[in-house]
């Protein structure tokens, strides 16, 4: 009877590092992912800030990129972060279940708890820094615009809308409804023209910076883990994972790049969007380089690596879910009065772009 029982697998065999081959392909993958990440992140910034491209890239293309990227961020939080975190630090990965982590991790849904804590901490951090930032601006003599969104015509406005004393007292803000060549039209989604507009542009600089910095921090944590995983994954899984991560990083970069491109900064700070795009683009290649350097002793399926990856994924999930639902969905759609009055065609176009980004990114979760 005892002889018929299968012996417990050796943890060193289950959780130890696997042989890593295809070294040349893995090194080449670093540069391929770097190039695609740069392309996805830099395109919105170039299209928004380089006058030649701004004149030649149609507004609807930019609008598509913006909302497609927003959908990608939402799906990344659920499918590519929270779900893996539940696997990495969940009951199925405990030693009793044949995994590599301590059984105590299976006694509570730690991934969801960490996601909740991260989401709440992100909210508290934003409101505290927003208060401190606006107070600092007031002491310096600045007059930050109240946290608001576009009222009236959705055409692009370079800078805050003029506010007279009566409007400031009543809390309402009027925006010039005069039309300029290339602005959006309320009559048809096909006449998006060359306008490059985002509701966040009407927010104070402090709010803009906090929103983008939060998003960037979340995707950078995730990108480093992706790089480590790709560099140390088995040869059998490498090819599929490599292709999926190419699209993953490009699409995620598109979502981040559109938010960086809309930052309303003084001329002396115009380098910030470029720095943010470069930092994101380098994260996965750096993670891959580290993974290749320690490939003989590192296994992302080992107990310690699984816990570290699960904790970071859960934290990143909370950040991205807060950003996607509050900064991107609520502020861009629900509290943006332009979408209360624009044509149904314009609204449907934006929602379809958002759903397409979320859907494609969720589909990629089948392989990554």
From TrEMBL:
Gene Ontology MF: a single term: zinc ion transmembrane transporter activity
Please report the record's description of how this protein sits within the membrane: Multi-pass membrane protein
Keyword Transport belongs to the record: yes
Q: Which UniProt keywords apply?
A: Ion transport, Membrane, Transmembrane, Transmembrane helix, Transport
Q: What is its main location?
A: membrane
The UniProt entry, under Pfam families, shows: Zip (PF02535)
Q: Where in the cell is it found?
A: Membrane
Transmembrane found in the keyword field: yes
One of the record's GO cellular component terms: plasma membrane
Which regions span the lipid bilayer? 27-47, 59-82, 110-130, 212-232, 238-262, 274-294, 314-335, 347-365
**Family according to the record:** Belongs to the ZIP transporter (TC 2.A.5) family.
Which NCBIfam families does the record cross-reference, listed alphabetically? zip (TIGR00820)
Instruction: Please identify the protein, giving its name as recorded.
Output: Uncharacterized protein
